[in-house]
């Protein structure tokens, strides 16, 4: 007899099918115990074991609600980092014809974040920032991806909305950002997400467009 039942499988399929990126949240703060369950799912995500031997605490998870004094600082640094990232994007546009031909929307979004910040960010019910040690294999991005996926699936199962905060990925060398969380520069990778009650039920959001080709070779 296996560990999981057919019902377990169907439940997972259902969670995967309704998982969405949510941009608008209700004002109501979810109770702490729900956020703790999402964080615990992140704690259990796989990591680069050999790299993790380099340091005692290889994974940090910081939970901020909208009342946190750090949130405006994170917002300011996201704008500043987005301006830096935009300069890099402009260089790629100038040198890569493919990017140049497909960059209008990306450039527009990045420019807006650099100028105005992420829409609704300062009203976010909860912000979770995750930091993962960058060891010899530099596998921190893969580990953070596992962590975010675990939390996203758990948030969906709890009917919470989830939105990735992608600009935080660029903060590895940002001295001010690292100091906010008392971490050294250039030693940790970062990712972040916003959590809260979605403005409407998850199954009412438009499903993502299919752009995948599967081939059995």
Explain what you see.
By secondary structure, the protein is an alpha+beta fold. It has helices at 6-18, 32-43, 49-52, 70-95, 97-101, 104-116, 140-157, 175-180, and strands spanning 59-65, 126-133, 161-164, 188-196. A four-stranded antiparallel β-sheet has the order 1-2-4-3, with helices on one face.
Work out the strand percent: 5-15%
Average pLDDT, to the nearest integer? Answer: 92
Structural class estimated from helices and strands:
alpha+beta
Strand order of the largest sheet: 1-2-4-3
Give the helix level as a range of percent.
40-55%
Number of helices: 8
| Shape verdict | globular
Main sheet overview: 4 strands, antiparallel
Run of helices and strands: HHHEHHHEHEHE
Distance between the termini: 32 Å
User: Low-confidence stretches at least 5 residues in length (pLDDT < 50)?
Assistant: none
Short précis:
By secondary structure, this protein is α+β, with helices and mostly antiparallel strands. 45% of the residues lie in helices and 13% in strands.
């Amino acid at each position: 007899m296996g560990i999981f039942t057919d019902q377990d499988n169907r439940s997972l399929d259902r969670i995967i099918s309704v998982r969405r990126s949510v941009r608008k949240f209700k004002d109501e703060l979810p109770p702490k115990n729900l956020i703790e369950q999402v964080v615990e799912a992140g704690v259990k995500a796989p990591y680069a074991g050999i790299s993790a031997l380099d340091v005692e605490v290889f994974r940090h998870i910081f939970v901020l609600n909208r009342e946190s004094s750090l949130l405006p600082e994170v917002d300011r640094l996201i704008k500043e980092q987005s301006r830096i990232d935009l300069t890099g994007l402009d260089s790629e546009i100038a040198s890569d014809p493919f990017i140049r031909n497909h960059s209008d929307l990306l450039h527009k979004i990045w420019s807006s974040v650099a100028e105005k910040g992420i829409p609704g960010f300062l009203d976010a019910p909860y912000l979770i920032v995750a930091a993962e040690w960058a060891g010899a294999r530099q596998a921190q991005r893969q580990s953070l991806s596992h962590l975010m996926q675990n939390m996203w699936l758990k948030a969906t199962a709890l009917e919470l909305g989830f939105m990735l905060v992608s600009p935080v990925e660029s903060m590895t060398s940002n001295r001010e950002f690292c100091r906010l969380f008392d971490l050294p520069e250039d030693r940790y990778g970062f990712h972040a997400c916003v959590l809260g009650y979605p403005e409407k039920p998850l199954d009412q959001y438009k499903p993502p467009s299919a752009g995948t080709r599967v081939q059995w070779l």
